[in-house]
Sequence to fold (454 residues):
Amino acid sequence: RRVREAVVSTQSTGFKSLWFSLCYFHAVVCERRKFGPQGWNRLYPFNIGDLTISVNVLYNYLENNPKVPWTDLRYLFGEIMYGGHITDDWDRRLCKTYLEEYMKPEMLEGELLLAPGFNIPGSMDYQSYHHYLDEELPPETPYLYGLHPNAEIGFLTMTSENLFRTVLEMQPRDSGASGGGGMTKEEKVKGLLDEILERLPEEFNMMEMAGRTEDRSPYTVVAFQECERMNILTSEIRRSLKELDLGLKGELTISNEMEGTMNAVFLDKVPNNWTARAYPSVLPLGAWFADLLLRIKELESWTTDFALPNVVWLAGFFNPQSFLTAIEQSTARKNEWPLDRMVLSVDVTKKWKEDFNSPPREGSYVHGLFMEGARWDSQSGMIADSRLKELTPACPVMFVKACTVDRQETKNMYECPVYKTRERGPTFVWTCNLKTKEKPEKWAIAGVALLLSA
Fold:
């Protein structure tokens, strides 16, 4: 009520414009949550109380200041009122970027577009604002949030997948057998269990590998660490499946853990005890196991002679950060530079994995990255708008090298976060600077990120 009275009574065009913009900002940050991780990395409890307090602060500030304190207001709203909910650094950047786009001096002249085709209105009374919204606000699309239409496709696809998975989990477990000729749950699990055990390679012989090389370069250390973690995972897979096999034969009592593994295998999900020892992934069990075999094959190829591969599959690591750190360490040692002054620089090539016959002298070529929210245009060598229905287009091979922080190129660059999966949030890897012709703020609002898994 106080907000309405203030709008009706005040003669300040500045207040009315800022008030309208703040309301639009509130609607955007609240409704953006429906787009999942591309909207916000984490879910935040934004509510009408945040808007009410912010409008009161806005009113008091404008009453006590002859000029609009733009910086102060953006800080109060972005870091305290709404920012107080935010725990993720990239979400904080998004909130700050929205405020920088929605609250700037141009709005006082009515020259600010809050969304494509939606200009900020001039000074009106309360009812006129309602009429303006009814007449001028475009139909709701991702464009109103600064997102690409693909964001809605991705959100609806994910919702549908979750719905069908829930329906599947609600099905009777032995429905196949009741039909007369189908397989029971135990028979299906036994078949999948035998197939996985048959295809699962032996563990890496760490003692034999250590005897084959005396080199302890950063890259070799990473290879050993990855093999050790792979051994832990494959050992747990083999142990749990053999136990479950004995349980299905009646030679062991079915424990809670064994039952959980059996249910997961039946529903094409990765069992929890495997996930706890594995890498972040959103794949179903069949695709997850195929991906695991590719990772093992990549490690086997690398550890044959411990020579750095021509092009490294960055997504194939349990800990990609360790490999990126190894690039910095190797370059720092070779050039006798201080390690704490090293940063990573990325050049996106125009080639693909098959086009490379040797590794670079410094740094590494990496592949297997996908872009969400935009695409990489190889012709211009810059970020470009996505094509419709191409949700996560693959990027060409990237040349990752290390340099000192004073040599890092920052002009016309978008600081692009890299995540292991489309769940984003806790799967953050590192920040990759990519060239852009557009303003970096456009890509920040569009939720553009690189993913190691499409």
